[in-house]
Design goal:
The complex is a heterodimer of chains A (245) and B (316). Chain A is an alpha/beta fold. Chain A is 40% helix and 24% strand. In chain A, a hairpin with a 2-residue loop joins strand 4 and strand 5. In chain B, helix 2 runs parallel beside helix 7 and helix 3 runs antiparallel to helix 4. Classes of the chains: A alpha/beta (245), B mainly alpha (316).
Chain lengths: 245, 316
Protein backbone atom coordinates (compact mmCIF):
# COMPACT_ATOMS: atom_id res chain seq x y z
CA UNK A 1 0.00 0.00 0.00
CA UNK A 2 1.42 3.43 -0.88
CA UNK A 3 2.00 5.80 2.02
CA UNK A 4 0.30 8.66 0.15
CA UNK A 5 -2.16 8.39 -2.68
CA UNK A 6 -4.03 11.08 -4.61
CA UNK A 7 -6.90 10.43 -7.01
CA UNK A 8 -8.30 13.04 -9.39
CA UNK A 9 -7.03 15.90 -7.23
CA UNK A 10 -8.31 19.20 -8.62
CA UNK A 11 -8.06 22.82 -7.47
CA UNK A 12 -9.25 25.96 -9.26
CA UNK A 13 -8.17 29.53 -8.58
CA UNK A 14 -11.06 31.41 -10.17
CA UNK A 15 -11.25 29.98 -13.67
CA UNK A 16 -7.67 28.72 -13.66
CA UNK A 17 -7.11 25.03 -12.99
CA UNK A 18 -4.03 25.18 -10.78
CA UNK A 19 -4.09 21.43 -10.30
CA UNK A 20 -6.34 19.41 -12.55
CA UNK A 21 -7.25 15.78 -12.14
CA UNK A 22 -3.85 14.68 -10.86
CA UNK A 23 -3.28 11.09 -9.72
CA UNK A 24 -0.15 10.27 -7.76
CA UNK A 25 1.26 7.72 -5.36
CA UNK A 26 4.16 7.96 -2.95
CA UNK A 27 5.62 4.61 -1.89
CA UNK A 28 6.82 3.93 1.63
CA UNK A 29 10.50 4.81 2.06
CA UNK A 30 11.13 6.33 -1.38
CA UNK A 31 12.25 9.80 -2.39
CA UNK A 32 9.85 11.18 -4.96
CA UNK A 33 10.59 14.33 -6.90
CA UNK A 34 8.03 16.81 -8.24
CA UNK A 35 9.19 19.09 -11.04
CA UNK A 36 7.63 21.38 -13.59
CA UNK A 37 7.95 24.92 -14.97
CA UNK A 38 6.95 27.92 -12.83
CA UNK A 39 3.21 28.03 -12.26
CA UNK A 40 2.78 24.32 -12.97
CA UNK A 41 0.91 23.81 -9.68
CA UNK A 42 3.62 22.07 -7.66
CA UNK A 43 3.26 24.14 -4.49
CA UNK A 44 -0.53 24.05 -4.89
CA UNK A 45 -0.36 20.27 -4.85
CA UNK A 46 1.70 20.41 -1.63
CA UNK A 47 -0.81 22.86 -0.15
CA UNK A 48 -3.59 20.41 -0.99
CA UNK A 49 -1.76 17.49 0.63
CA UNK A 50 -0.92 19.45 3.79
CA UNK A 51 -4.43 20.95 3.84
CA UNK A 52 -3.39 24.59 3.51
CA UNK A 53 -5.92 24.44 0.65
CA UNK A 54 -9.00 22.28 0.20
CA UNK A 55 -9.34 20.49 -3.17
CA UNK A 56 -12.41 21.10 -5.32
CA UNK A 57 -12.62 17.42 -6.06
CA UNK A 58 -10.58 14.27 -5.67
CA UNK A 59 -9.34 12.38 -2.63
CA UNK A 60 -6.01 12.17 -0.85
CA UNK A 61 -5.25 9.12 1.27
CA UNK A 62 -2.45 8.81 3.81
CA UNK A 63 -1.70 5.20 4.79
CA UNK A 64 -5.08 4.24 3.36
CA UNK A 65 -6.99 6.81 5.39
CA UNK A 66 -8.89 9.61 3.64
CA UNK A 67 -7.33 12.90 4.79
CA UNK A 68 -9.07 15.22 2.32
CA UNK A 69 -10.53 18.27 4.07
CA UNK A 70 -8.88 17.69 7.45
CA UNK A 71 -7.32 20.65 9.28
CA UNK A 72 -3.57 21.29 8.77
CA UNK A 73 -2.70 20.51 12.40
CA UNK A 74 -4.44 17.13 12.12
CA UNK A 75 -2.52 16.22 8.97
CA UNK A 76 0.69 17.14 10.79
CA UNK A 77 -0.22 15.06 13.83
CA UNK A 78 -0.95 12.08 11.58
CA UNK A 79 2.61 12.20 10.33
CA UNK A 80 2.87 14.51 7.31
CA UNK A 81 5.25 17.45 7.83
CA UNK A 82 6.29 20.12 5.36
CA UNK A 83 8.62 23.02 4.70
CA UNK A 84 7.78 26.16 2.74
CA UNK A 85 9.02 27.61 -0.52
CA UNK A 86 9.05 31.08 1.05
CA UNK A 87 10.60 30.26 4.42
CA UNK A 88 8.20 30.66 7.31
CA UNK A 89 10.31 30.52 10.44
CA UNK A 90 9.16 32.06 13.73
CA UNK A 91 11.37 35.10 13.23
CA UNK A 92 11.68 36.48 16.75
CA UNK A 93 11.84 33.13 18.51
CA UNK A 94 15.20 31.51 19.30
CA UNK A 95 16.15 28.71 16.91
CA UNK A 96 15.73 26.13 19.68
CA UNK A 97 12.12 27.17 20.38
CA UNK A 98 11.30 27.04 16.67
CA UNK A 99 12.14 23.35 16.74
CA UNK A 100 10.76 22.62 20.23
CA UNK A 101 7.32 23.73 19.02
CA UNK A 102 7.34 20.79 16.64
CA UNK A 103 8.22 18.38 19.46
CA UNK A 104 5.44 19.75 21.66
CA UNK A 105 2.66 19.68 19.08
CA UNK A 106 3.66 17.02 16.54
CA UNK A 107 2.69 13.37 16.26
CA UNK A 108 3.47 12.66 19.93
CA UNK A 109 1.94 15.51 21.96
CA UNK A 110 2.11 15.64 25.74
CA UNK A 111 5.89 15.77 25.81
CA UNK A 112 7.57 17.28 28.88
CA UNK A 113 9.63 20.42 28.37
CA UNK A 114 12.92 18.70 29.19
CA UNK A 115 12.21 16.01 26.61
CA UNK A 116 11.15 18.55 23.98
CA UNK A 117 14.27 20.65 24.53
CA UNK A 118 16.51 17.58 24.45
CA UNK A 119 14.91 16.38 21.23
CA UNK A 120 15.14 19.84 19.63
CA UNK A 121 18.82 20.03 20.60
CA UNK A 122 19.49 16.68 18.96
CA UNK A 123 17.69 17.72 15.78
CA UNK A 124 19.64 20.96 15.61
CA UNK A 125 22.79 18.88 15.78
CA UNK A 126 21.38 16.64 13.04
CA UNK A 127 20.84 19.55 10.64
CA UNK A 128 24.00 21.35 11.78
CA UNK A 129 22.58 24.36 13.64
CA UNK A 130 23.82 23.62 17.17
CA UNK A 131 25.99 26.70 17.15
CA UNK A 132 23.11 29.14 16.69
CA UNK A 133 20.41 27.60 18.87
CA UNK A 134 19.93 30.74 20.98
CA UNK A 135 19.87 33.11 17.98
CA UNK A 136 16.52 34.56 16.83
CA UNK A 137 15.55 32.72 13.64
CA UNK A 138 15.41 35.96 11.61
CA UNK A 139 19.17 36.45 12.04
CA UNK A 140 20.05 33.21 10.23
CA UNK A 141 21.14 33.02 6.61
CA UNK A 142 18.61 31.75 4.09
CA UNK A 143 20.36 28.36 3.91
CA UNK A 144 20.21 28.03 7.68
CA UNK A 145 16.57 29.14 7.82
CA UNK A 146 15.77 26.38 5.34
CA UNK A 147 17.61 23.87 7.50
CA UNK A 148 15.74 25.19 10.52
CA UNK A 149 12.45 24.51 8.72
CA UNK A 150 13.60 20.95 8.09
CA UNK A 151 14.51 20.52 11.77
CA UNK A 152 11.12 21.92 12.82
CA UNK A 153 9.33 19.55 10.45
CA UNK A 154 11.39 16.59 11.69
CA UNK A 155 10.58 17.52 15.29
CA UNK A 156 6.95 16.59 14.63
CA UNK A 157 8.25 13.04 13.93
CA UNK A 158 6.70 12.64 10.48
CA UNK A 159 6.55 9.53 8.32
CA UNK A 160 6.27 11.64 5.20
CA UNK A 161 8.20 14.88 4.68
CA UNK A 162 7.20 17.39 2.00
CA UNK A 163 10.14 19.59 1.00
CA UNK A 164 9.21 22.63 -1.07
CA UNK A 165 12.26 23.95 -2.95
CA UNK A 166 14.72 23.41 -0.18
CA UNK A 167 17.67 24.02 -2.52
CA UNK A 168 16.55 27.25 -4.19
CA UNK A 169 18.96 30.13 -3.66
CA UNK A 170 21.75 28.06 -2.12
CA UNK A 171 25.41 28.27 -3.17
CA UNK A 172 27.24 25.11 -4.36
CA UNK A 173 28.68 24.30 -0.93
CA UNK A 174 25.29 24.71 0.76
CA UNK A 175 23.72 22.65 -2.02
CA UNK A 176 26.02 19.72 -1.32
CA UNK A 177 25.20 19.94 2.39
CA UNK A 178 21.47 20.04 1.66
CA UNK A 179 21.66 16.95 -0.57
CA UNK A 180 23.62 15.11 2.08
CA UNK A 181 21.00 16.13 4.67
CA UNK A 182 18.19 14.69 2.55
CA UNK A 183 20.07 11.40 2.26
CA UNK A 184 20.44 11.25 6.03
CA UNK A 185 16.72 11.96 6.51
CA UNK A 186 15.95 9.03 4.17
CA UNK A 187 18.24 6.83 6.21
CA UNK A 188 15.99 7.54 9.20
CA UNK A 189 13.22 5.79 7.28
CA UNK A 190 11.26 8.94 6.45
CA UNK A 191 9.58 9.06 3.06
CA UNK A 192 10.40 12.18 1.07
CA UNK A 193 8.30 14.04 -1.48
CA UNK A 194 10.21 17.07 -2.81
CA UNK A 195 9.66 19.95 -5.18
CA UNK A 196 12.89 21.08 -6.75
CA UNK A 197 14.23 23.16 -9.60
CA UNK A 198 17.85 22.18 -9.08
CA UNK A 199 18.04 19.26 -11.55
CA UNK A 200 21.38 17.98 -10.33
CA UNK A 201 19.92 17.53 -6.86
CA UNK A 202 16.67 15.95 -7.92
CA UNK A 203 18.33 13.54 -10.35
CA UNK A 204 20.78 12.24 -7.78
CA UNK A 205 18.47 12.13 -4.75
CA UNK A 206 15.15 10.88 -6.13
CA UNK A 207 14.07 7.36 -7.06
CA UNK A 208 11.14 8.59 -9.11
CA UNK A 209 9.98 11.90 -10.51
CA UNK A 210 6.56 13.34 -11.38
CA UNK A 211 6.32 16.19 -13.90
CA UNK A 212 3.52 18.75 -13.72
CA UNK A 213 2.66 21.24 -16.44
CA UNK A 214 -0.30 23.65 -16.39
CA UNK A 215 -1.71 21.73 -13.46
CA UNK A 216 -1.62 18.38 -15.23
CA UNK A 217 0.62 15.42 -14.71
CA UNK A 218 2.44 14.92 -18.01
CA UNK A 219 5.05 12.34 -17.08
CA UNK A 220 6.39 10.16 -14.32
CA UNK A 221 9.23 7.70 -14.04
CA UNK A 222 12.85 7.22 -13.02
CA UNK A 223 15.29 10.14 -13.47
CA UNK A 224 16.63 8.48 -16.68
CA UNK A 225 13.15 8.14 -18.16
CA UNK A 226 12.34 11.74 -17.34
CA UNK A 227 15.53 13.20 -18.85
CA UNK A 228 14.93 11.36 -22.09
CA UNK A 229 11.15 11.88 -22.27
CA UNK A 230 10.11 13.84 -25.37
CA UNK A 231 7.14 15.50 -23.64
CA UNK A 232 9.26 16.73 -20.78
CA UNK A 233 11.92 18.16 -23.08
CA UNK A 234 9.20 19.87 -25.12
CA UNK A 235 7.71 21.47 -21.99
CA UNK A 236 11.04 22.68 -20.66
CA UNK A 237 12.82 23.68 -23.89
CA UNK A 238 10.00 24.24 -26.35
CA UNK A 239 9.55 22.53 -29.74
CA UNK A 240 12.34 22.64 -32.27
CA UNK A 241 10.28 24.49 -34.84
CA UNK A 242 9.59 27.28 -32.36
CA UNK A 243 13.10 27.32 -31.05
CA UNK A 244 14.46 27.84 -34.55
CA UNK A 245 12.17 30.65 -35.67
CA UNK B 1 29.26 31.19 39.56
CA UNK B 2 26.60 31.69 36.96
CA UNK B 3 24.30 29.18 38.63
CA UNK B 4 24.72 30.93 41.96
CA UNK B 5 23.83 34.20 40.34
CA UNK B 6 20.73 32.73 38.71
CA UNK B 7 19.52 31.15 41.95
CA UNK B 8 20.12 34.25 44.03
CA UNK B 9 18.40 36.37 41.38
CA UNK B 10 15.38 34.09 41.41
CA UNK B 11 15.08 34.09 45.20
CA UNK B 12 15.58 37.86 45.19
CA UNK B 13 12.72 38.31 42.72
CA UNK B 14 10.50 35.93 44.70
CA UNK B 15 11.27 37.74 47.94
CA UNK B 16 10.56 41.10 46.35
CA UNK B 17 7.24 39.85 44.98
CA UNK B 18 6.26 38.49 48.40
CA UNK B 19 7.18 41.78 50.08
CA UNK B 20 5.11 43.77 47.58
CA UNK B 21 2.18 41.40 48.04
CA UNK B 22 2.35 41.71 51.85
CA UNK B 23 2.57 45.50 51.61
CA UNK B 24 -0.43 45.56 49.28
CA UNK B 25 -2.42 43.12 51.41
CA UNK B 26 -1.90 45.11 54.59
CA UNK B 27 -2.23 48.58 53.08
CA UNK B 28 -5.93 49.09 54.06
CA UNK B 29 -4.77 48.87 57.72
CA UNK B 30 -2.51 51.92 57.61
CA UNK B 31 -2.92 53.69 54.27
CA UNK B 32 -5.38 56.58 53.89
CA UNK B 33 -8.77 55.77 52.41
CA UNK B 34 -7.96 57.73 49.27
CA UNK B 35 -4.89 55.58 48.60
CA UNK B 36 -6.92 52.39 48.92
CA UNK B 37 -9.50 53.68 46.45
CA UNK B 38 -6.76 54.78 44.05
CA UNK B 39 -5.09 51.39 44.36
CA UNK B 40 -8.41 49.71 43.58
CA UNK B 41 -8.76 51.54 40.30
CA UNK B 42 -5.08 50.91 39.52
CA UNK B 43 -5.74 47.20 40.03
CA UNK B 44 -8.77 47.38 37.78
CA UNK B 45 -6.68 48.79 34.95
CA UNK B 46 -3.83 46.36 35.63
CA UNK B 47 -6.23 43.41 35.43
CA UNK B 48 -7.70 44.58 32.15
CA UNK B 49 -4.29 45.43 30.68
CA UNK B 50 -2.51 42.24 31.74
CA UNK B 51 -5.35 40.04 30.53
CA UNK B 52 -5.44 41.98 27.25
CA UNK B 53 -1.69 41.47 26.82
CA UNK B 54 -2.03 37.77 27.63
CA UNK B 55 -3.79 37.26 24.29
CA UNK B 56 -2.99 40.26 22.11
CA UNK B 57 0.68 40.59 23.11
CA UNK B 58 2.08 37.36 21.68
CA UNK B 59 -0.47 36.81 18.90
CA UNK B 60 -0.59 40.37 17.57
CA UNK B 61 -4.38 40.14 17.28
CA UNK B 62 -5.31 43.59 18.57
CA UNK B 63 -8.59 43.17 20.40
CA UNK B 64 -10.73 46.23 21.09
CA UNK B 65 -13.31 44.14 22.93
CA UNK B 66 -12.21 44.59 26.59
CA UNK B 67 -15.07 47.04 27.20
CA UNK B 68 -17.54 44.39 26.04
CA UNK B 69 -16.29 41.74 28.48
CA UNK B 70 -15.94 44.29 31.27
CA UNK B 71 -19.47 45.52 30.61
CA UNK B 72 -20.87 42.00 30.68
CA UNK B 73 -19.29 41.61 34.13
CA UNK B 74 -20.86 44.88 35.24
CA UNK B 75 -24.32 43.80 34.13
CA UNK B 76 -23.92 40.43 35.82
CA UNK B 77 -23.31 42.28 39.05
CA UNK B 78 -26.27 44.57 38.46
CA UNK B 79 -28.68 41.73 37.70
CA UNK B 80 -27.53 39.13 40.24
CA UNK B 81 -25.99 41.38 42.90
CA UNK B 82 -28.99 41.25 45.23
CA UNK B 83 -29.79 37.58 44.78
CA UNK B 84 -26.42 35.90 45.18
CA UNK B 85 -23.33 36.23 47.42
CA UNK B 86 -20.62 38.47 45.98
CA UNK B 87 -17.89 35.86 45.24
CA UNK B 88 -20.42 33.85 43.25
CA UNK B 89 -21.52 36.94 41.34
CA UNK B 90 -17.90 37.70 40.45
CA UNK B 91 -17.38 34.13 39.28
CA UNK B 92 -20.49 34.30 37.11
CA UNK B 93 -19.38 37.67 35.74
CA UNK B 94 -16.11 36.10 34.71
CA UNK B 95 -17.86 33.11 33.19
CA UNK B 96 -20.20 35.39 31.23
CA UNK B 97 -17.16 37.13 29.75
CA UNK B 98 -15.57 33.75 29.08
CA UNK B 99 -18.62 32.40 27.23
CA UNK B 100 -19.11 35.57 25.20
CA UNK B 101 -15.43 35.42 24.16
CA UNK B 102 -15.76 31.75 23.19
CA UNK B 103 -18.69 32.58 20.95
CA UNK B 104 -17.15 35.72 19.46
CA UNK B 105 -13.74 34.08 19.14
CA UNK B 106 -15.07 31.05 17.31
CA UNK B 107 -16.83 33.38 14.86
CA UNK B 108 -14.12 35.96 14.32
CA UNK B 109 -10.66 34.61 15.02
CA UNK B 110 -10.42 33.51 11.42
CA UNK B 111 -10.33 37.22 10.62
CA UNK B 112 -6.86 38.68 10.59
CA UNK B 113 -5.35 42.11 10.95
CA UNK B 114 -7.57 45.15 10.73
CA UNK B 115 -10.76 43.10 10.22
CA UNK B 116 -10.38 41.51 13.62
CA UNK B 117 -9.75 44.91 15.22
CA UNK B 118 -12.86 46.38 13.61
CA UNK B 119 -15.05 43.44 14.57
CA UNK B 120 -14.02 43.48 18.21
CA UNK B 121 -14.67 47.20 18.38
CA UNK B 122 -18.03 46.68 16.70
CA UNK B 123 -18.87 44.16 19.39
CA UNK B 124 -18.70 46.83 22.09
CA UNK B 125 -21.07 49.09 20.17
CA UNK B 126 -23.35 46.18 19.35
CA UNK B 127 -23.68 45.16 23.00
CA UNK B 128 -24.09 48.76 24.12
CA UNK B 129 -26.99 49.36 21.76
CA UNK B 130 -28.51 45.93 22.34
CA UNK B 131 -28.58 46.44 26.12
CA UNK B 132 -29.85 50.00 25.65
CA UNK B 133 -32.68 48.76 23.44
CA UNK B 134 -33.46 45.91 25.87
CA UNK B 135 -33.59 48.20 28.90
CA UNK B 136 -35.80 50.77 27.21
CA UNK B 137 -38.20 48.38 25.46
CA UNK B 138 -38.32 45.31 27.67
CA UNK B 139 -37.48 46.33 31.23
CA UNK B 140 -38.47 49.98 30.86
CA UNK B 141 -35.45 51.46 32.65
CA UNK B 142 -32.19 53.01 31.58
CA UNK B 143 -29.96 52.55 34.59
CA UNK B 144 -29.66 50.06 37.40
CA UNK B 145 -28.54 50.31 41.00
CA UNK B 146 -25.89 47.87 42.11
CA UNK B 147 -25.77 46.96 45.82
CA UNK B 148 -22.67 48.69 47.12
CA UNK B 149 -19.86 47.04 49.01
CA UNK B 150 -17.34 48.75 51.30
CA UNK B 151 -14.06 49.94 49.86
CA UNK B 152 -11.81 47.53 51.73
CA UNK B 153 -13.71 44.47 50.50
CA UNK B 154 -13.60 45.74 46.93
CA UNK B 155 -9.89 46.35 47.34
CA UNK B 156 -9.20 42.84 48.59
CA UNK B 157 -11.30 41.25 45.86
CA UNK B 158 -9.35 43.17 43.22
CA UNK B 159 -6.09 42.12 44.88
CA UNK B 160 -7.11 38.44 44.84
CA UNK B 161 -8.15 38.55 41.17
CA UNK B 162 -4.91 40.41 40.39
CA UNK B 163 -2.84 37.69 42.11
CA UNK B 164 -4.68 34.87 40.33
CA UNK B 165 -4.32 36.67 37.00
CA UNK B 166 -0.59 37.23 37.41
CA UNK B 167 -0.08 33.57 38.28
CA UNK B 168 -2.17 32.48 35.27
CA UNK B 169 -0.35 34.83 32.91
CA UNK B 170 3.01 33.63 34.22
CA UNK B 171 2.11 29.96 33.80
CA UNK B 172 0.73 30.50 30.29
CA UNK B 173 3.80 32.45 29.23
CA UNK B 174 6.10 29.68 30.42
CA UNK B 175 4.03 26.76 29.11
CA UNK B 176 3.82 25.28 25.65
CA UNK B 177 0.59 27.22 25.22
CA UNK B 178 2.67 30.39 25.51
CA UNK B 179 5.05 29.10 22.85
CA UNK B 180 2.11 28.27 20.59
CA UNK B 181 0.67 31.80 21.04
CA UNK B 182 4.02 33.29 20.09
CA UNK B 183 4.30 31.09 17.02
CA UNK B 184 0.81 32.16 15.92
CA UNK B 185 1.81 35.80 16.20
CA UNK B 186 4.89 35.30 14.06
CA UNK B 187 3.86 32.81 11.38
CA UNK B 188 0.37 31.45 11.82
CA UNK B 189 0.41 29.11 8.81
CA UNK B 190 3.67 27.51 9.83
CA UNK B 191 2.31 27.02 13.36
CA UNK B 192 -0.72 25.19 11.96
CA UNK B 193 1.48 22.93 9.84
CA UNK B 194 3.64 22.18 12.87
CA UNK B 195 0.69 20.63 14.68
CA UNK B 196 -0.69 23.60 16.60
CA UNK B 197 -4.48 23.70 16.69
CA UNK B 198 -4.39 27.43 16.07
CA UNK B 199 -8.14 28.08 16.32
CA UNK B 200 -8.39 26.27 19.65
CA UNK B 201 -5.33 28.02 21.10
CA UNK B 202 -6.56 31.45 20.04
CA UNK B 203 -10.16 31.00 21.17
CA UNK B 204 -9.24 29.49 24.55
CA UNK B 205 -6.71 32.20 25.39
CA UNK B 206 -9.08 34.91 24.21
CA UNK B 207 -11.76 33.44 26.51
CA UNK B 208 -9.42 33.13 29.51
CA UNK B 209 -8.42 36.76 29.13
CA UNK B 210 -12.11 37.72 28.88
CA UNK B 211 -12.82 35.83 32.10
CA UNK B 212 -10.59 38.20 34.07
CA UNK B 213 -12.06 41.28 32.41
CA UNK B 214 -15.52 40.01 33.38
CA UNK B 215 -14.53 39.55 37.02
CA UNK B 216 -13.03 43.05 37.12
CA UNK B 217 -16.29 44.45 35.78
CA UNK B 218 -18.38 42.54 38.31
CA UNK B 219 -16.28 43.87 41.19
CA UNK B 220 -16.07 47.43 39.90
CA UNK B 221 -19.85 47.67 39.48
CA UNK B 222 -20.28 47.40 43.25
CA UNK B 223 -18.17 50.52 43.70
CA UNK B 224 -19.91 52.56 41.04
CA UNK B 225 -23.35 51.66 42.53
CA UNK B 226 -25.27 53.23 39.59
CA UNK B 227 -24.69 51.95 36.09
CA UNK B 228 -26.30 52.32 32.70
CA UNK B 229 -25.32 50.85 29.31
CA UNK B 230 -23.16 53.85 28.41
CA UNK B 231 -21.15 53.53 31.62
CA UNK B 232 -20.87 49.74 31.40
CA UNK B 233 -19.87 49.56 27.74
CA UNK B 234 -17.59 52.59 27.61
CA UNK B 235 -15.39 52.29 24.48
CA UNK B 236 -12.60 54.17 26.28
CA UNK B 237 -12.06 51.05 28.34
CA UNK B 238 -11.19 49.18 25.13
CA UNK B 239 -8.49 51.66 24.20
CA UNK B 240 -6.94 52.11 27.63
CA UNK B 241 -5.42 48.62 27.92
CA UNK B 242 -3.86 48.98 24.45
CA UNK B 243 -2.27 52.31 25.38
CA UNK B 244 -1.19 51.08 28.80
CA UNK B 245 0.37 47.93 27.39
CA UNK B 246 2.28 49.90 24.74
CA UNK B 247 3.38 52.42 27.37
CA UNK B 248 4.61 49.68 29.71
CA UNK B 249 6.01 47.39 27.04
CA UNK B 250 4.74 43.94 26.21
CA UNK B 251 8.01 42.01 26.20
CA UNK B 252 7.90 41.18 29.89
CA UNK B 253 5.09 40.26 32.25
CA UNK B 254 5.71 43.28 34.47
CA UNK B 255 5.50 45.68 31.50
CA UNK B 256 1.71 46.00 31.33
CA UNK B 257 1.59 46.10 35.16
CA UNK B 258 3.83 49.15 35.52
CA UNK B 259 2.30 50.66 32.37
CA UNK B 260 -1.20 50.46 33.81
CA UNK B 261 -0.11 51.55 37.30
CA UNK B 262 1.80 54.63 36.16
CA UNK B 263 -0.83 55.56 33.59
CA UNK B 264 -3.66 55.40 36.11
CA UNK B 265 -1.70 57.33 38.71
CA UNK B 266 -0.68 59.93 36.14
CA UNK B 267 -4.27 60.40 35.06
CA UNK B 268 -5.37 60.84 38.68
CA UNK B 269 -2.52 63.24 39.38
CA UNK B 270 -3.10 65.37 36.29
CA UNK B 271 -6.85 65.51 36.71
CA UNK B 272 -6.50 66.93 40.24
CA UNK B 273 -3.65 69.34 39.51
CA UNK B 274 -4.53 70.50 36.01
CA UNK B 275 -8.24 69.86 35.56
CA UNK B 276 -8.36 72.00 32.39
CA UNK B 277 -5.21 70.84 30.64
CA UNK B 278 -4.95 67.26 31.77
CA UNK B 279 -6.08 65.69 28.49
CA UNK B 280 -3.57 67.86 26.62
CA UNK B 281 -0.66 66.90 28.90
CA UNK B 282 -1.76 63.30 28.83
CA UNK B 283 -1.73 63.29 25.04
CA UNK B 284 1.72 64.85 24.87
CA UNK B 285 3.13 62.24 27.27
CA UNK B 286 1.56 59.48 25.20
CA UNK B 287 3.03 60.80 21.93
CA UNK B 288 6.48 61.22 23.52
CA UNK B 289 6.31 57.70 24.94
CA UNK B 290 5.48 56.17 21.57
CA UNK B 291 8.17 58.15 19.73
CA UNK B 292 10.99 57.72 22.25
CA UNK B 293 10.10 54.44 23.97
CA UNK B 294 9.20 52.00 21.19
CA UNK B 295 9.62 49.07 23.59
CA UNK B 296 7.81 50.83 26.41
CA UNK B 297 9.10 51.30 29.93
CA UNK B 298 10.35 47.70 29.91
CA UNK B 299 12.70 48.56 27.05
CA UNK B 300 13.95 51.58 28.98
CA UNK B 301 14.50 49.55 32.15
CA UNK B 302 16.35 46.83 30.27
CA UNK B 303 18.56 49.40 28.54
CA UNK B 304 19.43 51.05 31.88
CA UNK B 305 19.98 47.68 33.53
CA UNK B 306 22.34 46.64 30.75
CA UNK B 307 24.29 49.86 31.14
CA UNK B 308 24.59 49.40 34.92
CA UNK B 309 25.65 45.76 34.74
CA UNK B 310 28.17 46.51 32.00
CA UNK B 311 29.71 49.17 34.19
CA UNK B 312 29.84 46.72 37.09
CA UNK B 313 31.73 44.22 34.96
CA UNK B 314 34.06 46.88 33.69
CA UNK B 315 35.39 47.46 37.20
CA UNK B 316 35.88 43.81 38.13
Amino acid sequence: MPILEGKGVTKYFGGLAAVSNVDFTVEQGEALGLIGPNGAGKTTLFDLISAALVPKSGTIRFKGEDITGLKPYKICRMGVARTFQMVKVFADMPVLNNVALGSYFGTSPGMSSTDAVREATELLKFVGLSEVKATPAKDLTLANQKRLEVARALATKPELLLLDEMMAGLNPAELAQAMELITRIRDKGITIFMIEHVMKAIMSVCDRIIVLHHGQKIAQGTPQEITTSKTVIKVYLGEKAHAGS
Amino acid sequence: MDIVRVISKRSFVLGLLLLILILLATSPLYAPRYTVILLTSIFMYIIITVSWTMFSGPTGYISLAPAAFFGVGIYTSAILGRALPLPLVIGIGGLAGFCLALLVGALTLRLRGIYFVMFTFGLVELLLHFVLWWEVNITGTTGRVVPSVDNTTVYYLMLIIFAILMLTAYLIKRSKLGLALQSIGQEEDAAAHTGVNVTMVKVMTFAISAFFMGTAGAIMATRWTYIDPRIAFNPLLSFMPVLMAIFGGMGQLYGPVIGAAIFTYLEEFLITRFPYYYMLIFGIIMVLAIVYLPDGLVGLIQKLWKRISERKYAYT
